[in-house]
Amino acid sequence: MDASAAPLPGPEVADRALVGLPATEIAARVRSGELSAVEVVRAHLAHLADVEPRIGAFRVVRTAAALAEAAAVDSSPRRAELPLAGVPVAVKDNVAVTGEVATDGSRAHAPRPASADHPVVARLRAAGAVVVGITRVPELCIYSATDGPGTVTRNPWDTARSSAGSSGGSAAAVAAGVVPLAHGNDGMGSLRLPAAACGLVTLKPGRGVVPGPVGANSWFGMAEHGVLATTAADLAAGLAVVAGRPVAEPEAPVAPLRIAVSTRSPVPGVRLDAAGRAAVDVVVGELRAAGHTVLRRDPVVTPGAALGTVARWLAGADADAEALALDPAGMEPRSRTHARLGRWVRRAGLVRPRTAEAFRARMTDFFTDVDVLLTPVVTGPPLPARPWHERGFLANMTANARWAPWTPAWNLAGLPALVLPAGPGRSGLPSSVQLVGPAGSETRLLWLAGEVERRLPWRRHAPVFVPGQPAGSRAG
Predict the structure, then answer these.
(1) What is the pLDDT of residues 118-156, one digit of tens each?
(2) Which residues, including other chains, have CB under 8 Å from residue 450's CB and lie 6 or more apart?
């Protein structure tokens, strides 16, 4: 059902105190029988009805289906074993959900309801999570702002700003307290940029950690699935579920970590703002206070690696458009140009595996004597919430590159990268940092995120959306 037409339960039948709880707490209370999944989902659907007109996070709201799924969790003989029992989740609009249409943000697709869940969705459901809706994305998940004809997804911290992209709908939903956990994926920063914009924590896992493709070919190996959350513990639980692994608390390293810090932009002429620098400095201070060794060191992103990343970004979008059988006449002009360039890149053979492997080897060498790299995420506040789809390809590409230079390299290298809130913020908006590690270091990054959260706790939701109260109440 389209979000604009979905009948939702009123506040009189929902316990608003259940909104804003962490996913791990909800699951524990549903497993024990203290809460029912139905009452949890009903409360979150009611909150969704309040806030959705202001943020535009959802393309589809699954009211009846979600309540039916919640009832099935309550009656399941395995309820006491389910790691995400009764947890409301949102799914990004580029994976299959049974009975729903995945559009990849495009109106040019042929609407075909899915006959089976994508593996990531299947794992979430098997863990007891309840899919309350499908979140908006920019066309073909290409851009750093989420908008399309007739809709602009807005940042719950400041609705004049974008929630970023391409997992912008999922991030807006989590930041507004609509769901404690949301699915997303990341091919150039599409999890990490919305997390930075909306004050969330997320992790783009390393290559192959989460089985299941993103689109036609995962943008030639650059894209990975993950989740967006408000706590490090929720992130660890959600990531374990979508990876098909047991949920467990990340183990602490046996010795203090060696952490490299770099604030140099990979894009020439692009500089970090004062708030971004302050966020890095605050985290550096806490890491040193915790006993870790911090040193300055810049990874080198060669021109060949940069061009290889852009080639995959262009060609991956064209491959997705082809797989979806999109009608070019119905695509947005910016996306049509993007896909046309991608088609040329593919025909010219410019997507070369050795480019990615050479860069991965270079970055493996970088981590030979350091455990983690700390960097900024974005250069400043999120892009304005405006119809970017009405602007051309060059305007969109330039805005993306200037705002988000620190994320794409790790997609090309296939290495894990985590984003978490930190620092004094940007005039009412969050600020964040990025933690990157070598292959297989997801557990280390999750543990470090938990340590930073304990030492520098962050506000879990946008203050205008007070958990337990109708939207419109403002936090003090």
Answers:
(1) 999 999 999 999 999 999 999 999 999 999 999 999 999
(2) 232, 233, 236, 250
The pairing of beta strand 88-92 with beta strand 181-186? parallel
The residue among 236, 184, 214, 221 whose CA lies nearest residue 442 is 236
Instruction: For residue 144, give the nearest of 111, 186, 207 by alpha carbon.
Output: 186
Q: In Å, how far from its chain's centre is CA 212?
A: 16
SS3 content of the chain, % helix, strand, coil (to 5): 40, 15, 45
37 and 73 in contact (C-beta within 8 Å)?
yes
Active site residues per annotation:
92, 166, 190
Q: Would you give the DSSP letter of residue 2?
A: B
Reduced to 3 states (helix: H, G, I; strand: E, B; else coil), residue 448 is: helix
Q: Do 410 and 204 touch, CB atoms closer than 8 A?
A: yes
CA distances from 460 to 18, 175, 313 (A): 15, 7, 32
Sign of the Cα pseudo-torsion (168, 171, 175, 178, in order): positive
Q: Which of 350, 71, 415, 461 is CA-nearest to residue 209?
A: 415
How confident is the model over 290-314, as pLDDT tens digits? 999 999 999 999 999 999 999 999 9
User: By C-alpha distance, which of 420, 345, 338, 433 is closest to 143?
Assistant: 338
Q: At what angle do helices 303-323 and 353-366 cross, to 10 degrees?
A: 130
Summarize pLDDT for 423-442 with one digit per residue, the tens: 999 989 999 999 999 999 99
- How are beta strands 224-229 and 432-436 bridged, if at all? unpaired
Q: Hey, what are 296's tokens? A: 């300055």
How many other CB atoms are there within 10 angstroms of residue 295's CB atom? 10
